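go over this record:
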Amino acid sequence: MTPADAANDPLPALRVRDVGKTYRLWSTPASRLWVPLMYRAAGWLRPLGPLSRWLGRHAAARVHYHQALAGVDFELGRGEALGIIGHNGSGKSTLLQIVAGVLEPTAGSVSVNGRVAALLELGSGFNPELTGRENVRVNAAILGLTPVQVRERMDDIVAFADIGDYIDEPVKTYSSGMALRLAFAVQVHTDPDILIVDEALAVGDAAFQAKAMARIDEILARGTTLLFVGHDLNAVKAFCHRAMLLEKGRIVLQGLPDEVITEYLHRTHRRALQAQQDKRASALARIDGGYGLEDACVVNAEINGARHAGVKHGDRLELAIDVRRNAAIGHPCLIFDVLDGRGLQLTGRRVVLPAGEGAVRVRIGLDASFQQGVYRIRTRVVDSPALERTTVLARQEGWLSFEVVDDSRERFTGLFPVPMDIRVGEATPDAPVAGPGGGA
């Protein structure tokens, strides 16, 4: 389907209606045989009453049911990106497998309109006896590419995977990372209408991960629909227009990524405090800009006298942050972070606060030495007797932001400059060039 066709198609890319998934868990391997026979015998012996009920009770005792999903319902339009977050065991991967057609739902229905590329269990479909190139042909054909398309894209797939001459060796000789890279390369070169990603951006080394992120950016720029699951919350903010929080197989919250991520972090932090038997867990609540304790949080903040400031590169930023703390906090600190538009932390500081009751004002000054763009300030109030013993009492984001309005790419590239010593001179044609770690 071309981008023009996708834009004119009135059907949503994905429709999930009241989907549920229940697994049967057997007490022993033999129960898989005996339980169905006992249920059938109970049906035959129903006229005998007590014997039929006895068989039914003993059959039920040998099988248990686990509800992985219940009542999951949402739609995803063409070109939209939905991030799904939740704790381990919340049903995220099960939902993706149902959407991808790997699993059948126990209840409800899934309607998919378009070609799907699913980055799930990468490499699991490879035949270890075949070479990498042969596996590319087989997998690409399964994903719907014609032999002509496979030939046209083979060089690009091989170059993207970057596994060298191993492409013509049997996959059983590959490391796990090489197999994952090759599987990822195949999936992202199929021109999918819907891309399903489950923790697949951590494949390979750092250089390959950067290339994988850039490739997904390209795919999304063409109008591809994205369904993304991951614990990397920055990636959810970077790629997704909407987010969904799953807990115990049910949708707890849907909305903007920042809102859903804040609720997820709130629940995660409360669980962590409960696990430590910290009495403050019950008092942890949603507050303005995030979550925390009412008597240990930021209660007011300004940047250049307002909530948002527009500045030029190098202009001065003056922050005033009022922090409330209670007398029970032995080692109060304020951590403030500067985040880019995707939520990536660029820099920050820990500010030690005096112990006591009431509010204190923290003043912070810094130069706006950043590239053109919008930046946010995140604050955390913590009890920190040591770096390794830090308890977060409040986390707030979205109050303060600033925008650097001028383009500084002539001065530096990236998001902010670092000190560099740069010298340009005549090159001596016959002089050797020192490699990494070398030099005269």
